[in-house]
């Protein structure tokens, strides 16, 4: 992701205000399913620290990055976590369902069950971005859905922090 050089003063002021905000923020944390365990531990620690700092965390229910974010947030304060699923809970992988059954604020998207997972995930990510002030994303350079989500978030003037695994 590259930023244009002709960023307006208003945009810079808005981003600076979001970064410096001392109260709680709504932070979306999304990323790839294919994440080494060492990276998952770092993501879990990050989400734990974000929630302990008073932030609300929003993510989805996939394995990998999102699962690590859920673990960290649940350890810190389960009430500060919202998980939005691309489809209904019964369409999620078996290994995710047990973790998701403990999430207090779980949003299922039954209306997307007829879509492919990629299509449903893109819709879900747009919903997540619409609810956050800041997006933290972990992706590979070929993670098309996640990179599109970052572009959408930038267009909506969200602060976007993108980490690449490769």
Automatic annotation (TrEMBL):
This is DNA recombination-mediator protein A. It comes from Oxynema aestuarii AP17.
